[in-house]
Structures are given as structure tokens and as C-alpha cells.
Design a protein that fits this description.
By secondary structure, the protein is α+β, with helices and mostly antiparallel strands. The chain folds into four domains: 2-99, no CATH class; 104-184 and 214-240, no CATH class; 252-482, Orthogonal Bundle (Phosphatidylinositol 3-kinase Catalytic Subunit, Chain A, Domain 5), CATH 1.10.1070; 488-560, Immunoglobulins (Immunoglobulin-like, Sandwich). It is built from twelve helices and 29 strands. The chain has a seven-stranded mixed sheet with strand order 1-4-5-6-7-3-2, with no helix packed on it. It has a seven-stranded mixed barrel with strand order 8-9-10-11-14-16-15. The protein is globular. This is CotH kinase family protein. GO terms for molecular function: kinase activity. Keywords: Kinase, Signal, Transferase. Residues 1-26 form the signal peptide.
């Protein structure tokens, strides 16, 4: 009898244990529910501790606000890499649940969000360390991107619904400020190029005035967030700092302009291809928009006009002697390398800031809007070009005239960076890690639910890494060999410049007058031919790339920019 009682006690104990229910509860604002897509995204504290669940519990519940959800199948563990099927206990509607490691942003408004002005909205943010709520003003930002179904937004944090007073907010390790951007990344096939490029620039380049302004940054820092707008899941975004006076720590005005900041929004003076007269009543001039001083305080285009005029119209001697008093030399080197490494085709004049720390300091560049790069262009299309050099009128003149022997320093800087942050292993690992994290954590799967404009597949990653490898190989040749300050001799001939923009000069051409020449591309295909009739050979018609000039039995390797 005692044995039977003992057996029944053990059996009852086991049954009670097995029928136990584990109830989880997400904190307010650490979850969002998209009712139309029956989608739940939630953060959960210490998710790694929820293991061996199927052997311990017969029921698993998740409390989200006032609603209870039941797991249809008890998983062995909880993770951000899986999707779970859950049922609302009241409505019996099934939902797909994802746990996320990314910060969550929820924005709700009764107003229509437009380009301008900002309209009132309620904002909530949650990550591992903070939950933040605020009133904000929100507007759509961007140019062509405004036509995309997934919008980029400019956020200003308000103390009240009218926005009369603003408040500074900090996220993670980013700065404290009242003005933020959530960048949609819609035209980026892997949603990682802008992130990677922004991080790379901050690693490559530091402001040259850090001794005076230790908090200054060379560009905007970013991190990923997931966004809900009016209860609808909007996908992954970059939460981004602004490029502004505060980010760059430009000097404030004291009865006269000291710090300056101009945003390149189109072609013109911004690419040093035009120099129209300016109007100080207009905040736009020839491709630039004034950002600091603020347009409602003072607009004065004189300084940037004179700089542009110098670049375009100074004599060669004046340019060589004075350009590094007017533009920061180290910034030129790093930006020229960065621009061409990522091949950001829009960032030679558009999507670029021209800034000045203070009155007597030179101008410098700050990149912006870096989604069209690493083998894609502004609309997200792949452009598999790796053998060209991006410049504008200013960059081209520097390369052609080589003031203060800067091409040697560019080459040396490239070689040094290629041993460190610009190795293929470092760059490819950074891209691959981002891709694998986004994929394994189901970010691509969630993104495809709302914006299936790309496949987010392995083929896109392979394309990107192959493009990067080919780009680095070409730039190694360009920076280490073709970007040379030495004149190249073809037998007893002197041929320059290299790289060439419009023509190859042959000062002592009389030795080969009347002789035929041929130009071949790197595939050995004939790209041009003619007869030597003057002291130069025009290369205007060639596409950018590496070529070989052949005159009789002699050859000369050059780059067409």
C-alpha cells in the first residue's frame, strides 16, 4: 500500500510540474503589434536565459499590455533568430512573433506627415537600457527618396505640442540633441551600405582641430532601429545624427561669420563647374544650401564664392602656392580616398558638406547620404564599375597640378590604410557581419513583409564582396602606381600627366611627329588610335579607367580620370 501511494505521489508531482505555465510580460513600449499584418515585435529582458522550455512547461504565455497571447507550440528556447506562432487568447487570432535585439521606435500622429512643416506626433523609444517618450515634430526629408513608399523622416524633439521649445535627447552612445533623422534605406539592396560607409568614414578621418574641439566628429554616426508608424510596421532604419554646426563643433558667430557650413544639393559651384553671381537674400546658390550660419540669422556667400573662384580661375602658380591655405590638405586626402573606395557617385558635389571651423581655417568636406555606394547608385541599381576615378573640378585640378606634391602623400596614405582599416578582410568582414546579423535575426524577413523591393539574398552579398575586391585591386594600381608625381618617359619622350583628364602632353613630340599611336584598355581591346600631329594626344573620349598607349614598340601605362 505504501509503495502505491509513493508511486501516485511521484506521478502527481510530475504531472503538476509538466502542466506548469510560464508567463512572460513585455514592458510598455518594448513591444509593438501590427494588427493588419498580424505581426508582433517585442524585446524581452535576458532572452538567453529562456532555455529548455519544452521540457519544463506545458503552456507559454506572453502578456503585451492588456492582451494575452499563447504560444501555439512551446519552443525549446527563446531567441531573436526564430519566428513564433502565437494566438490572442481573447480573439483567437493568430500572430507571428519576433523577438528583436534592436531598439524599437513607435511614432503616432493624427496629422498628415509632409515635407514641411513638421507636424506634431508622439514618440516612444526602447532599448536594453532606456525607455523614452517625447512629443516631436516630424517631417519627410530627402529629394527623390520622397517618392519612395518607405520615407525618411526628420525628427525634432519638443517640450509641447506646438514646438515652441525643444529638448535634447540622447540615444546610446550618440550625441545629445533635439534634431534627429531616421533614414529609410529603401533604395539600398542590403540595407547596410549607408551604415557601413558612415562608420568607415568616422574610423578613417578625424577633424584636424580636435585639440581645440575634442567633441567634434568628422560626420554623422548611426545605428539600426526598427520603426512602427501609427501602429504599422515600417521596417529597419538608421537612426542618425545630423551633420550640423554642433556635430562638427564649428565656431559660433560673434558679430561676424566664423564657422561656415554649406550642403551640396545639386551640381554647379558645388562641383566647381559653374560660378554664377550670388544673392545674399537667397539661401540657395549654385548647388549649395546654406546651413550655418542659419538662413534666418545671416546669409553671406562671399567666402565660398571666392574659394570657388580661386579653384576655378587662379593661375596654376597661384593654385599651387595657395590651395592648402584655403582647403584642408589632410581632409582632401582622406575624402578623395574614401569617395573612390566606396565609389559614391553622388558625393562629388551633391550629398556633401563644405565646412569651415573658423574664420582663418581652411574649408573641409563632410560626406552625407551614403546609400548609393559599394557597387550601387542613387536608385539602388547595381553599377558594376570598378575601374574609374571620381572627382569634381577641384579634385581634378589638384591631381593635375599636384600642389605641394600631394599625390605622393595620397599614395602613402592609401598604402597605410590598406594595412589597417582598408584591408579586404576588414572591409568584407564588416559587410558580411552586418549581412549575417540582419539575416539571422530575421530583419530581412520582416523588411520583406512591408517592402519586398529586393530579395536580400546571398547573391547581393556575393556581388558586393566581388565588387569590393575588384575595386580595391584597381585602386591599388591607381594609388600606388598611376598616381605618380614622376613624369613618365617613353624612350626619350616625356608624357604627362598621369592620371590624365583631357589629354596626354608630349612636349618633345617632334621626335615622333607623324608616327601612329594606339590606345588599348585592360582587356587588350583597341580603344583609340591616330597619328602624332601635335604636342598632345586627346583622351577626352575615353571612359575612366586604365589604358596603355603604344607608339611603335614602346608602351606607356596611364589612367584616364
Amino acid at each position: 500500500m505504501n509503495k502505491k501511494l509513493a508511486f501516485l505521489s511521484i506521478l502527481l508531482y510530475n504531472l503538476c510540474c509538466f502542466s506548469q505555465t510560464l508567463t512572460l510580460q513585455a514592458e510598455a513600449h518594448k513591444f509593438n503589434i501590427d494588427q493588419s499584418k498580424t505581426l508582433v515585435i517585442s524585446q524581452i529582458k535576458d532572452i538567453d536565459t529562456y532555455t529548455n522550455l519544452s521540457s519544463q512547461y506545458s503552456n507559454l504565455e506572453l502578456i503585451l499590455g492588456e492582451e494575452k497571447f499563447i504560444f501555439k507550440t512551446i519552443p525549446n528556447q527563446l531567441t531573436t533568430t526564430e519566428a513564433y506562432s502565437i494566438t490572442n487568447s481573447e480573439t483567437a487570432i493568430n500572430y507571428t512573433l519576433y523577438f528583436t535585439a534592436l531598439p524599437l521606435i513607435s511614432i503616432s500622429t493624427e496629422n498628415i506627415i509632409v515635407d514641411e512643416p513638421k507636424v506634431y506626433a508622439d514618440f516612444y523609444y526602447a532599448d536594453d537600457t532606456q525607455i523614452l517618450s517625447s512629443k516631436i515634430g516630424i517631417e519627410i526629408r530627402g529629394g527623390v527618396s520622397q517618392s519612395y513608399p518607405k520615407k525618411t523622416y526628420d525628427l525634432e524633439f519638443w517640450e509641447d505640442e506646438l514646438g515652441d521649445d525643444t529638448r535634447d535627447i540622447s540615444f546610446g552612445n550618440l550625441r545629445s540633441d533635439d534634431d534627429w533623422i531616421i533614414d529609410a534605406l529603401y533604395n539600398e539592396p542590403l540595407r547596410l551600405r549607408s551604415y557601413t560607409a558612415n562608420k568607415l568614414w568616422l574610423e578613417m578621418h578625424k577633424p584636424t582641430y580636435l585639440d581645440e574641439e575634442p567633441d567634434a566628429k568628422s560626420g554623422a554616426d548611426v545605428f539600426y532601429v526598427e520603426v512602427f508608424l501609427n501602429g504599422a510596421y515600417n521596417g529597419i532604419y538608421n537612426l542618425s545624427e545630423q551633420v550640423d554646426k554642433k556635430q562638427l563643433e564649428l565656431k559660433s558667430n560673434k558679430e561676424e561669420i566664423r564657422g561656415e557650413l554649406f550642403k551640396g544639393v545639386n551640381w554647379g559651384a558645388s562641383t566647381f563647374t559653374a560660378l554664377p553671381s550670388y544673392d545674399n537674400s537667397n539661401e540657395m546658390w549654385s548647388g549649395y544650401e546654406v546651413k550655418y550660419p542659419k538662413a534666418d540669422e545671416i546669409i553671406d556667400w562671399e567666402n565660398v564664392y571666392q574659394f570657388t573662384n580661386f579653384v576655378m580661375n587662379a593661375t596654376d602658380l597661384e593654385f599651387n602656392l595657395g590651395i592648402w591655405d584655403k582647403f584642408n590638405r589632410d581632409n582632401y586626402i582622406d575624402y578623395f580616398i574614401f569617395l573612390n573606395l566606396i565609389r559614391a557617385t553622388d558625393n562629388t558635389g551633391k550629398n556633401i558638406y563644405l565646412a569651415k571651423y573658423t574664420t582663418d581655417e581652411p574649408y573641409f568636406y563632410v560626406p552625407w547620404d551614403l546609400d548609393g555606394c559599394f557597387g550601387t547608385i542613387w536608385n539602388g541599381a547595381n553599377e558594376d564599375i570598378t575601374n574609374d576615378i571620381l572627382t569634381n573640378g577641384f579634385m581634378s585640378r589638384v591631381i593635375e597640378l599636384n600642389p605641394d606634391n600631394i599625390t605622393e602623400d595620397i599614395s602613402n596614405r592609401w598604402v597605410a590604410l590598406r594595412q589597417d582599416v582598408l584591408t579586404y578582410d576588414a572591409l568584407s568582414q564588416s559587410i558580411s557581419n552586418q549581412y549575417n546579423d540582419l539575416k539571422s535575426n530575421n530583419i530581412y524577413k520582416r523588411e520583406a513583409l512591408v517592402y519586398p523591393n529586393y530579395t536580400f539574398g546571398e547573391d547581393d552579398l556575393v556581388y558586393t564582396l566581388n565588387w569590393l575586391e575588384n575595386r580595391l585591386a584597381f585602386l591599388d594600381t591607381y594609388f600606388e602606381n598611376a598616381l605618380s608625381t614622376e613624369e613618365t618617359h617613353l624612350n626619350s619622350l616625356t608624357i604627362y600627366p598621369n592620371p590624365a583628364i583631357h589629354k596626354l602632353n608630349i612636349p618633345n613630340y617632334s621626335q615622333i611627329f607623324g608616327k601612329p599611336f594606339k590606345i588599348y584598355n585592360t582587356l587588350g581591346q583597341l580603344s583609340g588610335e591616330g597619328i602624332i600631329k601635335s604636342d598632345y594626344i586627346s583622351v577626352d573620349y575615353l571612359q575612366a579607367g586604365i589604358y596603355v598607349l603604344q607608339i611603335e614598340h614602346e608602351t606607356f601605362k596611364f589612367i584616364k580620370s
